[in-house]
Amino acid sequence: MSYRTVIRRLVSSIFVAFCALSVLLALVPLAFVLFFVVSQGITAINLDFFTHMPKPVGEPGGGMANAIVGTLILTTLGSLLAIPIGIMSGVYMSEYAGSRFAAAARFAADTLNGVPSIVMGVFVYGFAVLPFKQFSALAGGIALGIMMIPIIARTTEELLLLIPNSMREGALALGATRARAVFTVVVPAALPGIITGVLLALARIAGETAPLLFTAFNNRFFATKLTQPIASLPVQVFTYAISPYADWHRQAWAGALVLVMLVLLCSLLARIATRRLEGLH
Amino acid sequence: MRSRDLGFRLGTGAFALVLVLIVVAIGVELTRQSMLSIQKFGFDFWRTQTWNPVTGEFGALPFIWGTLYSSLLALLLSTPVALGIAVFVSELSPARFRQPLVFLTELLAAIPSIVYGLWGIFVLIPLIRSIETALPSPLAQLPIFSGPPVGVGMLSAGVILAVMIIPFTSSVAREVLKSVPVAQREGAYALGATRFEAIRAALFYARTGILGAVMLGFGRALGETMAVTMVIGNTPKISASLFAPQSTMASVLASQFTEADTDLYLNALIEIGLVLFVITLVINALSRLLIWSMSRSRTRVRARATAVEAVA
Q1: Most buried residue, A202, B9, B102, B178, by CB count within 10 Å?
Q2: How far does the CA of residue A174 sit from the closest CA of chain B (Å)?
Q3: Quick one: which of A198, A205, A216, A197 has its CA closest to A70?
């Protein structure tokens, strides 16, 4: 074996080792983050966390009941806005996939997907907070909803395109209109996929903080009115994290643990829904 | 076309129009709301570096600097690792590890920014501080290491951003590599290439797409808000030092927006938002263009990009 061959093999082995090391390098922070969230969160979390209101500084205990309800309200508002728009535009983009307007809508969806979440907050502030001089749950819901739309639209589109054309043609051959063929045959077949899109969108926005900072703002009290500022888990975690109180830090870790569980649950359900869809074909 | 089908097309098309209108509305609204600042400062807004809300002086250069510095630092740290992962998963890993590895690296994108920030404050910053303190003194004389080792600052921001963008770059790069024809690698092996040489050829073949993947990560880093805000120190000062607390466009919005007490202050902040919007739009469009132009199985790569962004 020549000297040159030895060198070439050596370089190759080093390269392979580097690639394997890269995987480890990425898994270390993942394990590191998850370890701290779980170990710190688990000591701070208890039933009170879910059922009690935040306590004032200095009083130990208390929970994030208002923020948990707030997050549920905000994500529901977001879903109400995003699901119809997302699914219907997804249907358009897949049914008229070749048209120029579908390409424009696709580009718009990808652009929206890349807009920094803080910019989304500034945008919604401009038309939903500033004119009314009032932070509100509604504004927060709109901000989250706009962030969900492109995800739902694009997954709906991709998954509708997976449905065999023969199903659509069968319905059309039986004399169905295009709308009927799509809504009674194609969409139901792709339903698990569409649910995946909604779950992915929820997983993405459940932990979003930046778009809520100046739309939904925060609220120390229990609020269910949509025209009032409302607390949310991520914003509460942020407020507690940058505070100087050890007790609040513990609460922040507990909140982070709940958020991570929530996001993982949504991703897991999405994965199961995709499995079912793949099983169908 | 039957008229009922026309109704269907227009009905669903109206919803697709909403998507386009939202993008246009963001641009128009942000411009409208920042008019005061645009008219008063003009281009000087982006050339001056005094940011003093009390005296009404607004120069955004420190934020541009902070954004570029932190994002480029993140890119420098994350690109080799992300490409290494992409190569390992698509070319080297045994088939049964492939799916779990993809899942684990994409999990990095699923963790909310605020959780990274919390971890940054209580775990990463003390760690970075002890590394900074342990730096040998000859090195500490260099401008990029000047200033007290406080932990909070550019280095922490760069590290946290790097971790956060790895999954984006690596999954797109992996899909791009998959679209390199197998014959290409087989040809290299047939000529007696080592693994490294064959993969290098594949990477070279896929260079446009790889560049697109790196740019996609860059776009993410530019707009990343919460984690950066929590570790960078939010000081509007230009410094070359990795140790110095600085500020980015996104972090100044997150930390000062609700404090804006005058119209001019608010307009200046919104103008920063407008420019951040335009920059990320251009970077994302460019990266998608590169990825598409490279990839033969276009839809798959695109779908991948959307799916990863979806869980982020």
Answers
A1: A202
A2: 15
A3: A216
| Other CB atoms within 10 A of residue A199 CB | 25
- Average pLDDT in chain A: 91
- What is the number of alpha carbons within 13 Å of residue A160 lying toward its C-beta? 28
pTM assigned to the model: 0.92
- The answer to whether residues B270 and B30 touch, using CB atoms and an 8 Å cutoff, is yes
Look up the ipTM and state it: 0.93
Name the band, by pLDDT with cuts 50, 70 and 90, for residue B137.
Answer: confident
Residue with tokens 């962004």, as numbered in its chain: B309
Return residues 35-54 of B near A (CB < 8 Å): none
Calculate what percentage of chain A has a pLDDT beyond 90.
68
Cβ-contact B58, B41 below 8 angstroms: yes
The pLDDT of residue B312 is 37
Q: What is the pLDDT of residues B246-273, one digit of tens each?
A: 999 999 999 999 999 899 999 999 999 9
Give the Å distances, CA to CA, from B107 to A264, B95, B166, B304.
Answer: 9, 19, 11, 14
Choose the closest CB to B115 out of A116, A217, A260. Answer: A260
Write out the H or E segment, with its range, that includes residue A91: helix A65-95
**Residue A92 at interface with chain B, using a CB cutoff of 8 Å:** yes
Distance CA(B187)–CA(B69), nearest Å, equals: 41
Helix (H) or strand (E) holding A27: helix A3-44
Task: Looking at B137-206, list the stretches that DSSP marks H as alpha helix, in order from N- to C-terminal side.
Answer: 137-140, 154-178, 182-190, 195-205
pLDDT-derived band at B298 (thresholds 50, 70, 90) equals very low
Is residue B282 classed exposed, middle or buried when 0-12, 13-18 and 19+ CB atoms within 10 A define those classes?
exposed
